[in-house]
Amino acid sequence: MDNCIFCKIAAKQLPANIVYEDDELMAFKDIKPAAPIHLLVIPKKHISSLSDCNASHHELLGKMLALVPKLAAEHGIAPVGDETGPFSGGYKTLINTGPEGGQEVYHLHAHLLGGPRPWTLDR
Length: 123
Ligand code: DGP
Prior knowledge:
19% of the residues lie in helices and 20% in strands. The chain is an alpha+beta fold. It has one domain (5-114): 2-Layer Sandwich (HIT family, subunit A). The chain has a 5-stranded antiparallel beta sheet with strand order 1-2-3-5-4, with helices on one face. Bound molecules: 2'-deoxyguanosine-5'-monophosphate.
């Protein structure tokens, strides 16, 4: 999509601090972190929001969600019981959808937030 920031990041036309990439997905650090660890997981293909998903997106959505615990573990925020990380209290996974849902960027993304509080999450 022309003019989509996250499409440009996925195409490496805009810089981002990329922490994961495969054929379908990318994860990078949020430019305005609301928590000590704040990552965004996106599909490389443009999908405007979760509202545009249906049964044909089961596999992609499953891959996005399944990437979260891997990234959490890699960033030391895996939940209690896995004491491998310094902040192992768990994390929040969030998909803002639409204006009332607090969505600012219209390219599907899952937020992964974690680390010691306080956070500045207001959504
Ligand atoms: P949302 O409100 O769910 O649409 O969150 C969009 C997030 O995207 C917000 O936390 C800030 C982040 N963001 C916006 N533009 C950029 C950018 O150019 N680069 C990066 N890394 N993050 C961005």
